Amino acid sequence: MSHLGPNFILDLRVAMRRIRASLGLSSLIVILLALGIALNSTVFALVHALILRPLPVQNPSGLYILTQDVLNLGPRSEQPYSVLEALQQRAASFSQVAGYAELDTACRTPIGPARVRAHVVTGNFFEILGTTPLLGRMLNARDDAEGAAEIPVVLSYPFWRSHFGSDPSVIGRPLTINRHPFTVVGVLREHDNGIQVETTPDLRVPLRAASVLATDPDYASYRKLDFLLFMRLKAGVSPAAARDEAYSLLDATLAEEAGRTGEPAYWRDRPLRLESLETGVSLLRPKLKGGLLILMSGVAALLLIICANAGGLLLAASYARRGEFAVRLALGATGRRLTAQLLTESLLLTGLGCLAGLALSLFATPLLARVLPPLRDLTAATLTVSLDLRLSPPVLALSMALCLVAALMAALPAAVQSAGVDLIGALRSVRTTRRQRLRWALVIVQAALCTLLLSGAGLLTATLKNLRGIHPGFDAARIVTFTLDPSMAGYSDEQGGLLRARLLQAVRRLPGVQAAGFSSRGLMRGTGIKTTVSPAGRRAPRSEFLNTSLNSISEGYFDALGLKILAGRDYQPSDINEKSPQPVVVNQVFARRFFPGQDPIGKLFGTGLDIVAKPEKRILGVVSDAKYRSLREPVPPTIYGFSPVTLKTGGSFVLHVRTFSAPDEIIEPVRRTLAELEPLLPFYEIHTLRAEVDDSLWAERVLAWLSSSFGIAAMALVLMGIYATLAFAVAQARREVGIRMALGAQSADILWLLSARPLLFVLFGAVLGAATFLAASPFFRSLVYGLPAVNPGAIAASILLVSTTSAAATWIAVRAALTTPPAAVLREE
Fold first, then answer.
1. Residues 6+ away with beta carbon under 8 Å from 409
2. Which residues, 6+ apart, have CB-to-CB distance to 251 below 8 Å?
3. Residue 690 near residue 523, CB atoms below 8 Å
4. Is the dihedral of CA 673, 675, 678, 681 positive or negative?
């Protein structure tokens, strides 16, 4: 910016007049740059929030979490309370060790009953994080003391806002949780999620609250819960040394506990990692990290194409003014002065585009949280989303850097060209056939980036098509799921069983209902229950850990899902009386895996790891295969346990209703049916199964849609750039074309003369883009399904599409020169 000085204000005024004089061109450049900057800023905001942003806690780099990789389960960070206690009392590597356990429970709020997620936290939970409240106070070690008059509870910001209307007088008010009185003592600040990135519990309670919140007597004490552990490392202690000490304490504690209870400690021999918690724990990060990085690369490539086009437009505009520049040079202006003037004009124009892009991203970024899929934990419970997508300083810094780079990339080519104006040539004529290497270099770059984007879009779109073409095994088109938890209304197990029976009977009588049944777990929710199975008399090795999925169902469930009994029979109410061996229904994959080539009916098997399986279960029937957690997952071996409608059990369950017509039409009648039976107890989740299937493909659908949109946009920009560049080149060569045609050249000769080199440049750029895509193909392996990451068909189709559309743009640009009479061209001077 060496031109900033006495002439800057004058240059700025001239630039503003030039922008007003060419309002159409100026508006196009501003819109293109605004879209490019907005897309990059918005996507980076999501990348920063999920992958890069440090936790908003005190000294996040000093926090660590213990993690073990468990076969068929993935990373696991929960440990028994005994391990937490051992680390707190005996570990010398950590200054503090804290943790929390998760419980789902019912809560009576000012707006009615609600099913909530509560975290039972250690007394130092908020101290180790350095969290301060928005209202009231945080929990502390004194709140764990038994026998205190009241049990305190801290509300999350989303729960306070949605259930208490952001009432600042909430502190000190009573709150009934699982039919027990609590007292609200604090409200957290917005996006204070503890160590989690995008989710937050509704409530946080002290350890002693576990005894009144647990619905299962086996877990009615915090000492019986599993805690997610995290700690702060002491200064001077290496993570490796701290991990070794933690593993030694964990192994000794679990061995002692196994000796006391007689149960094997499955987690003892799992490798233990001590991982940094600087960026927190995220559910979405493992699923979206690869896709987000590819998406970031895509929007960056699109911005490069936009900058190339904006640069080409400014280049053409400055070339059209070379007569003006020549006159100014003849009158004594210097090349540096002309460059300063044109650079000011270009930077002002591109700066307007960048500012518009930042304003657009400020509006669009908060909307991203609304399009995220439902987030669920291992129990398939829906979690509260609390993802901070505000434009933080790093995001704003990157956006400003993008603005500067985009402005310079768009403005410098025109400024450099203006500095090299040929005074004599410009004064004599504006018609020249000199090569415009810079313009054609921009065409090569655009063609390469467009091919790269289209190849990726083709691969991701084909993946989505393959997944959508999979039949899940059930009738997704005509099923609605209703999730209910009778404990939200204070129901006992006996009352819950009675309500379940009455509800099912009433729903089956509704017009339009073909079948209905219950299950303990919904389908296509990304999670489920697993166990370890082997035929009776055999031993399941460690490699078979958690090899089978489970689901508890009522009579009528298979009819409701559209599953077929292929061998044996379905459940009957009398089957509940058979205890040893317990009759079960399994799917085809289970039968083939554990009893290959045999008739599975009547076969016995048991559960357990590293033990000889007892004849605990007997196969009653075999049902057709169906997807369980997602479409990507192969159909797992599945056991359908029997939980008849009349069974007196509490907890939540999922009602599946299969209809004769459109499933949406049955939602309101079923809702009214429940209201008649229990007005104070709502369904807390209602979905069509088709919507559940679509939600399971959220990441693939968004990536395919965005990559396709970017590819189409890139194609349009490339065509615009090729047409503008070639039309400008043709305009320069009008005199040469006129002379050639006057001397007898044919139209085909002229067409080949003008289009051969541009198409060669485009083809070179397309091949360069394809080569880049091949080099990047390893990044696509985790995203594709049913396709190789290196897909020659997608690459060839992209090259063909870029070349064909470029040829069409070339023909349109050249046609004007072929239709101009040679005499008219030769008379122009």
1. 304, 307, 308, 311
2. 268
3. no
4. positive
| φ, ψ (nearest 5 deg) of residue 244 | -60, -40
pLDDT in tens, 700-713: 888 788 778 777 87
Compute how many other C-beta atoms are within 10 angstroms of the C-beta atom of residue 174. Answer: 11
CB of 193 closer than 8 Å to CB of 147:
no
Tokens at residue 35, please? 């879209």
CA distance 371 to 662: 25
Tokens representing 33? 């740059």
> For 6-41, b where at least 16 C-beta lie within 10 A, e where not — what string?
eeeeebeebbeebbeeeeebbebbbebbbbbbbbbb
> Phi-psi category of 201—alpha, beta or left, where left has phi over 0 and alpha has psi -120 to 50?
beta
In Å, what is the CA distance from 65 to each residue of 224, 234, 239, 248, 280? 21, 14, 11, 16, 9
CA distance 587 to 605: 14
Q: Do residues 527 and 375 touch, judged by C-beta distance below 8 A? A: no
Residues ≥6 apart with Cβ < 8 Å to 628:
523, 524, 528, 549, 551, 635, 636, 638
0.70 exceeded by pTM: yes
Q: Which of 121-147 are b and which e, b meaning 16 or more Cβ less than 10 Å from the residue's Cβ?
A: bbbbbbbbbebebebbebbeeebbeee
**Top-confidence range, 52-56, 112-116, 676-680, 751-755:** 52-56
User: What residues does each domain of the chain span?
Assistant: 1-53+290-430, 60-278, 437-469+698-829, 476-696
pLDDT, tens only, 184-223 = 999 999 999 999 998 999 999 999 999 888 766 667 788 8
SS3 call for 813: helix
Beta-strand pair 548-553/638-642: parallel
Q: Which residues contact 53 (CB under 8 A, 6 or more apart)?
A: 197, 279, 388, 392, 394
Q: CA 386 to CA 5: how far, in whole Å?
A: 49
Could you tell me if 341 and 24 are in contact, meaning their C-beta atoms sit under 8 angstroms apart? no
Task: Say which residue the tokens 């003014």 belong to.
Answer: 321
Rounded distance between C-alpha atoms, residue 84 and residue 253, angstroms: 10
Q: What angle do CA 87, 92, 97 make, to 5 degrees?
A: 40
Cα–Cα nearest to 481, from 653, 657, 677: 657
Locate 702 and state its tokens.
Answer: 């968004």
Which of these, 92, 116, 112, 93, lies nearest to 103 by C-alpha position? 116
How many residues comprise the chain?
A: 829
Q: What angle do CA 155, 161, 163 make, to 5 degrees?
A: 80
Residue 108 DSSP SS3 = strand
